[in-house]
Amino acid sequence: LSGRGAGVRLENITKRFGDFTAIDGVSLDVRPGEFITLLGPSGSGKTTTLNVIAGFTEADAGRLLIDGTVIGSLPTHKRDLGMVFQHYALFPHMTVAANIAYPLKQRRVPKARRAPLVQAALESVRLNDFAHRYPRELSGGQQQRVAVARSIVYRPRVLLMDEPLGALDKKLRDRLQLEIRRIHAELGTTFVYVTHDQDEALVLSDRIAVFNRGDIEQLGTAEELYERPRTLFVARFIGEST
Ligand code: ADP
């Protein structure tokens, strides 16, 4: 499933809900193949930023570019991206293989080409033996791995993840963090990952964008944020990790 990652560039993105400004002129340059995490407290604008990239939310101002192309109001399914959410939302009446094949059907990939893609996606998440099982027969962690397989099966060049481990207990979270790191390394896809968990961000990311009140307070590697926090907020927020 190897594929190049795409660059994702946000230029001065603003999104308001009524009188309330959820994100206020956010700019961010994600390099092709990078693992970037949007980290910050609840309500700081991380999900809104991700939703603008996904096309779920239309920005009031600013531009989004993927690989240098202005995206405008292109619908979500025409953007070259995959998505994983906290709630994996698999179809309960469909097998694992059918769940993973679903986006291929949506994208009108010819039937003959679907099986090898599903197989490769199952291999990526190490669930080869689970193709004919049903979601209810799997643990939460395994279901989330199916959701990851479903999001990468059509080989998007950008993968967006919104608190994908949020519904899992600590031990599973730790295991899946390693899985996510490995999958990122194997695919070469650009990952944009949302979490409020400092430790998760530190373990996973090439770079971290620290959000506060609708804007990015600092962008840097874990080391930079620890050693050279630019604001008191960053020092305190990063310092809260255990
Ligand atoms: P985070 O992901 O960092 O927790 P969000 O991006 O979800 O933050 O939300 C940022 C702010 O925008 C929050 O105060 C939230 O209540 C508000 N918000 C998000 N979506 C909507 C919406 N659809 N309508 C009104 N307010 C919203």
From TrEMBL:
It catalyses: ATP + H2O + polyamine-[polyamine-binding protein]Side 1 = ADP + phosphate + polyamineSide 2 + [polyamine-binding protein]Side 1. It is an enzyme of class 7 (translocase). Keywords: ATP-binding, Cell membrane, Membrane, Nucleotide-binding, Translocase, Transport. One of its GO terms (cellular component) is ATP-binding cassette (ABC) transporter complex. It comes from the Bacteria. GO terms for molecular function: ABC-type polyamine transporter activity; ATP binding; ATP hydrolysis activity. Its EC number is 7.6.2.11. Residues 8-238 form the ABC transporter domain. The complex is composed of two ATP-binding proteins (PotA), two transmembrane proteins (PotB and PotC) and a solute-binding protein (PotD). Belongs to the ABC transporter superfamily. Spermidine/putrescine importer (TC 3.A.1.11.1) family. Part of the ABC transporter complex PotABCD involved in spermidine/putrescine import. Responsible for energy coupling to the transport system. This is Spermidine/putrescine import ATP-binding protein PotA. It comes from Spinactinospora alkalitolerans.
